[in-house]
Design a protein that fits this description.
With 675 residues, this protein is mostly beta strands. The protein has 8 helices and 33 strands. Bound molecules: zinc ion. The site of zinc ion has 5 residues, from strand 1 and helix 5.
Length: 675
């Protein structure tokens, strides 16, 4: 189990207006000189020590390069540079004991409240030596954060930078979390924090502004004052720091009754590593522990403040005047051939003076800030944005736009069993997930024949949905239409919530209407659980689904999107889909005969059906169709004035059929199932 440290509530109610200190921007070293008497001498000693590291000398002041990764979706979650600078200033203020509210520290702790001599500064060089503001911005739905290693895709080398991810939401009500040094893979060695708890302005407020101070404490190996749990108030515990009294921790700020564990010993309610609402101090012992961490090779923390690293990250001789970094999002992720799609520019890191949008499958290029492209080829489109200013250029290529095939008139009745086509192709299109398996053709098993579509979900873990898109079906002249498909799916365990949905679009993928959704046990067709990879569905596992497309009749381009969403836990299994079939009945008739006038039984039926019609006149026609709209001859016998028996002339296969009833009052098509 990973060691996860989290805070559920706020650390401090910061009601004083704090004094801004000159730190947290790009000139921390100079600031250090200004703000701490003798710092320059100390720093030069530090440089000497770092350059002669075999004579290990213990550093006693530190500057840590920081990179802030802002994940956003184009709203207020794309927080301002000013908010980032504010957060950095608060962090520096707290670690340098420049906070004005130190006057509120209770008597017992005034003598050990410590200036930790640790500074933080945004990097001005990235891992490759390029100019950076120390802030990266990514249009990423993972601003609604999930805790797994894939989420940490923007991490810069944690031996060089303190990585801070700023996100819009997190699971379990967390405001932020961090890991102890060396407890996780380097990729995850950073802090994740809500933008509402990052700084005191913009989307944040003074109330939550010390959450980052707390998390950086963990990053530098501090435990909660009651020990290494996330549960204060349970039992008296120690944090391996000598001058923080044994405590069970606090969730509120009662300074007058803070003696719970040791008779006569007041506990440090105001510590930054508490869960109380009045955190305003670190102790001398905590400072020493953090310094030991920063002098330790564990997780390369000792490299962060090394002279070489301060040069490499641009804290010494900082860069300015950066080239921009390209970032964008398509305004819609699905379009079709010939329909333009526009993009929103979210480039950052420097003012942009020119934009170029291109794609190998587009018929045009664009130089607008928010460009637009029209595609000539179906499939997953590759879109490239190049941005520049006088200091340089940057390009970003994304494959996020699915281009559906254009009009495919004529297709109204097909059974696509994937026996004679290759999937994906110019008509049937699969989305490519960032992680895990897309929809693929399976050449080993099928409901009919030996092929089908499948998602290899047992070994992979696409927590994002994966899609299979159909060609356009022409339902313009249909009076009724149905989508049938067969599928087989096994749950791994009862807790497994894989989901299949089917959606319909009549506007080239701009909007989608859900017509089918099944999840977990509902979706399971095996009647049990398969703890191994589900690879060979039995005949009895294939289940047919029949969906009414009545609402989409009259449209000439009807697309279907099958989406398989893997259980976020990754505990999923495989799904197979086959025999995707659109059946329709042509003729511009509306289904206007009230169902109240009709009863038909039994349904499902075996050989014969009975129809009862409570309308004034008899039917004028009665027709039976199979799913391919082939008419099947029937024998109709009038039993009573309003009651008829219906018997097909041929021996029907089990499956779905449609009975079309036409009367002077109107017509109606009913779905029948033959056992
Ligand atoms: Zn914590």
């Amino acid at each position: 189990m990973k060691f996860l440290l989290k805070i559920f509530i706020l650390l401090c109610f910061c009601n004083s207006s704090f004094s801004q200190m000159n730190c947290g921007f790009n000139y921390a070293i100079e600031s250090l000189y200004e703000s701490v008497p003798g710092a320059k001498t100390k720093y030069e000693e530090l440089l000497k020590n770092q350059m002669n590291k075999t004579n290990v000398a213990i550093s006693n002041s530190f500057t840590i390069p920081v990179v802030v990764h802002i994940l956003h979706q184009g709203g207020s979650d794309n927080i301002s540079d000013a908010q980032v600078n504010d957060a950095m200033a608060i962090l520096c203020r707290d670690f340098r004991k420049k906070n004005a509210d130190t006057i509120n520290i209770v008597t017992q702790f005034q003598g050990i409240a410590s200036d930790c001599s640790i500074q933080f500064s945004l990097a001005t060089k990235d891992e490759y030596g390029n100019c950076t503001t120390g802030i990266t911005r990514h249009y990423d739905s993972n601003t609604n954060w999930t805790i797994n290693q894939y989420s940490y895709k923007y991490t810069w080398n944690p031996a060089q930078y303190l990585n801070i991810y700023v996100v819009a939401s997190m699971p379990s009500g967390m405001a932020g979390y961090a890991y102890y040094p060396g407890s996780v893979s380097p990729l995850m060695d950073g802090i994740v924090i809500l933008n509402s708890y990052f700084g005191s302005i913009g989307t944040a407020s003074p109330f939550g502004s010390r959450a980052l101070t707390h998390e950086v404490g963990h990053f530098l190996n501090l435990q909660h004052v009651w020990g290494s749990t996330n549960n204060p108030g349970v039992s008296c515990g120690d944090d391996a720091v000598g001058d923080t009294p044994i405590t069970q921790g606090f969730t509120s700020c009662d300074l007058t009754n803070a003696i719970n564990c040791t008779s006569g010993v007041t506990e440090n309610v105001q510590n930054y590593m508490e869960y109380a609402f009045c955190s305003i101090m670190f102790t001398q012992g905590q400072k020493n522990r953090m310094h030991n961490c920063l002098n330790s090779t564990v997780a390369n923390r000792d490299n962060l403040s090394s002279n070489a690293n301060l040069i490499a990250t641009g804290l010494i001789n900082p860069l300015s005047n950066c080239a921009p970094k390209a970032e964008f999002v398509p305004n819609t992720f699905v379009t079709c051939v010939g329909n333009p799609i526009s993009f929103t520019d979210y480039s950052y890191n420097g003012a942009v003076t020119n934009w170029t949008w291109t794609s190998p499958t587009a018929v045009n290029t664009s130089t607008l800030q928010n460009g637009s492209l029209t595609f000539s080829t179906a499939g997953l489109a590759s879109v490239k944005l190049t941005v520049g200013n006088s200091f340089g250029t940057d390009t970003l290529t994304k494959q996020e736009v699915t281009v559906l095939a254009g009009a495919n008139s004529g297709i109204t009745n097909v059974v696509e069993s994937f026996e004679n086509i290759t999937f994906p192709n110019a008509l049937w299109i699969a989305s490519t997930p960032q992680f895990g398996s897309p929809f693929l053709q399976n050449n080993a098993t099928g409901a009919t024949g030996s092929k089908s579509l499948w998602v290899n979900n047992y070994f992979d873990n696409p927590s994002e949905g994966v899609n299979a898109f159909s060609p356009a079906f022409n339902l313009q002249n249909t009076s009724s239409a149905f989508l049938n498909f067969t599928y087989a799916y096994a749950q791994k365990t009862s807790a497994n919530n894989d989901q299949l949905t089917v959606e319909v679009s009549t506007d080239c993928g701009l909007t989608w209407t859900n017509i089918y959704s099944k999840i977990g046990a509902q979706l399971n067709t095996t009647g049990g659980f398969k703890t191994q990879a589900y690879l060979n569905p039995l005949n009895s596992h294939w289940k047919i689904e029949n969906l009414n497309l009545q609402n989409f009749s009259g449209n000439s381009k009807v697309y279907f999107k099958f989406t398989f969403m893997s259980d976020v836990s990754g505990a999923g299994n495989n799904i197979f889909i086959d025999d995707i079939n659109v059946s329709s009945i042509t003729g511009k008739k509306t289904e206007n005969l009230s169902l109240q006038h009709i009863s038909i039984f039994p349904n499902p039926f075996n050989e014969m059906l009975t129809l009862k019609l409570s309308v004034n006149s008899n039917f004028s026609s009665l027709k039976l169709f199979d799913v391919l709209s082939r008419e099947i001859k029937i024998e109709v016998t009038q039993l009573e004035p309003d009651k008829f028996s219906i018997r097909p002339y041929e021996n029907l296969k089990a499956g779905i059929y449609f009975l079309q009833i036409s009367t002077p009052e109107g017509m109606r098509t009913l779905k029948l199932i033959k056992n």
